[in-house]
Structures are given as C-alpha cells and as structure tokens.
C-alpha cells in the first residue's frame, strides 16, 4: 500500500539524510537572512495554488503567502516549481528552504517534515462526468481512475479500494486533469479547486464532484527539528491572520471567507516536539 513515510525514509536513507541533526537544521533561518533569499517550493501548474502566467511569473495562493514570507524576513523569494512526488525530497535534500506546494497535513508526512499551523484548506474529492453515477467509492471500483502519483488523493483512493490496476498514476496534476479531459480515464482524484483547471482545459464540460474523501489542511513545511524556523512560521501565520492579509488572499483565489482552522490535528504536531 502507498506510504509517503516509507518513500520519504527510503529516499533519506539512500542519500544519507536520515541522521540530519536538529542543530544543523536550526541554522536555516539565519542562513536565509545571510543569503538574502528564501527558496520556496510551490506548484507550477495547479491554479489557484501555484501556476505560471503568460509572462513566466509564479502566481497563486501559495505564491502570495510566500511573497509575504519574503517581506517579513526582508529577503528576496525564489519560487521553485515542484512535481507532486518531489515535494518532500526537494525539502529534505535542501533544494528548497520551505515547502508550500499544497502540502496537506497528514501523519505520514509529519514523520519526515515539520508542519506549521494551517494557513489554507480544501477538500480531497473524486471528479467524473455527470453521466457516471457514483454515490460511493465502490461505484467507481471498475472505472479507470487517474491520480497524481503520491498525492493525498492517491492515498485516499488506494486505501479505500486497494492498489487496483485501473488506478492510473500520473506525474502531476495537469497530466491527471488532461487524462480525464481526453478520456484516458473515467474519473480522477483531485481537490475542490481542480474544477477551475478542468473548466480552462475543457470549457463547457460536464465534470462534477462525486465524492469527498476528507478535508485537507495545508501547512508550511520546514525540516524536522528546526525549532527556530517553525516558531517563526507559526508567528508569521498568526500575524497575517490577525491583520487580514491571509483573509484577502483566501478571498482573492478561492472566493470564500477564510475557514476556521483546527487547533490541532491527530498525528501532526504544529510545533517541534
């Protein structure tokens, strides 16, 4: 069965990173300030969270929050587009300083990265044509189902149905969406903002939300053991919530009021333990 933790630990062990010390990690904030730049991982093709506009600039919810991080730190921001499966490896190998590429907060992931408090939320769902009657996940058992490899929807569907051969895994969100539009698959696991991209790819389509697997909260990820960075991020999130800047970003990209974020999540600590 799919396991983010197993994949991440295998990578870390192979690269000799399993023993990264908290002492080394604790220097991240200071190093960022000295370098004058923070490298932040974002999605490159998943509007409204992270995408590239016609002029080649990063845009989206995570991008706007990332820019605020740079402003608060007094440094430049370098956005690094991430494939779904590369998000955790890019953080633990130091290719990015912080990971914000729609990082859902789950216990397996919390074993290998440190989450901040939540700053955004969505729902993990199944989408398909109106023609397909899907009221329970069992109704989709014999359908071709597309998912981004290693994403939360991959795990949700695999947990419920088992690792069926008709679950087709793609490298990123855009490939998964295109598979549904082109008829390669009958349904896809996605999130509540996928419909934005489906409507762009296929105006007038009849794709709709069929099932909700879970509500997903997103946190800003730093390396395990980095208490200084984690504390700074949590204070930053409190600040942009209190002064209305996060509310404005939520309204801009999701056209909704900011949700009531959970005070805790089982198996996902918001602070360094």
UniProtKB/TrEMBL annotation:
<keyword id="KW-0732">Signal</keyword>
<feature type="signal peptide">
    <location>
        <begin position="1"/>
        <end position="26"/>
    </location>
</feature>
<dbReference type="InterPro" id="IPR018313">
    <property type="entry name" value="SBP_3_CS"/>
</dbReference>
<comment type="similarity">
    <text>Belongs to the bacterial solute-binding protein 3 family.</text>
</comment>
<protein>
    <submittedName>
        <fullName>Amino acid ABC transporter substrate-binding protein (PAAT family)</fullName>
    </submittedName>
</protein>
<dbReference type="GO" id="GO:0042597">
    <property type="term" value="C:periplasmic space"/>
</dbReference>
<dbReference type="Pfam" id="PF00497">
    <property type="entry name" value="SBP_bac_3"/>
</dbReference>
<feature type="domain" description="Solute-binding protein family 3/N-terminal">
    <location>
        <begin position="37"/>
        <end position="257"/>
    </location>
</feature>
<dbReference type="InterPro" id="IPR001638">
    <property type="entry name" value="Solute-binding_3/MltF_N"/>
</dbReference>
């Amino acid at each position: 069965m799919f396991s983010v933790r197993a994949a991440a630990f295998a990578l870390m062990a192979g690269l000799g990173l399993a023993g990264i010390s908290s002492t080394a990690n604790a220097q991240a904030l200071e190093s960022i300030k000295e370098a004058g730049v923070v490298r932040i991982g974002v999605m490159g093709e998943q509007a409204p969270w992270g995408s590239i506009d016609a002029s080649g600039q990063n845009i989206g919810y995570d991008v706007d929050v990332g820019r605020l991080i740079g402003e608060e730190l007094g440094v430049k921001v370098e956005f690094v587009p991430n494939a779904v499966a590369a998000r955790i490896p890019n953080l633990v190998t130091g290719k990015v300083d912080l990971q914000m590429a729609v990082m859902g907060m789950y216990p397996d992931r919390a074993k290998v990265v440190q989450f901040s408090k939540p700053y955004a939320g969505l729902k993990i769902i199944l989408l398909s044509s109106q023609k397909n009657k899907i009221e329970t996940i069992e109704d989709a058992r014999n359908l071709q189902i597309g998912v981004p490899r290693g994403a939360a929807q991959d795990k949700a569907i695999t947990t419920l149905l088992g690792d069926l051969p008709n679950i087709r895994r793609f490298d990123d969100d855009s490939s998964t969406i295109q598979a549904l539009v082109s008829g390669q698959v009958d349904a896809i696991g996605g999130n509540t903002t996928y419909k934005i991209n489906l409507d762009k790819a296929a105006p007038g389509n009849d794709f709709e939300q069929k099932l909700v697997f879970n509500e997903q909260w997103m946190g800003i990820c730093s390396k395990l053991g980095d208490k200084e960075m984690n504390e700074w991020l949590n204070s930053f999130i409190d600040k942009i919530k209190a002064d209305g800047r996060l509310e404005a970003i939520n309204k801009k990209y999701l056209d909704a009021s900011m949700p009531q974020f959970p005070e805790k999540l089982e198996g996902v600590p918001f602070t360094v333990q």
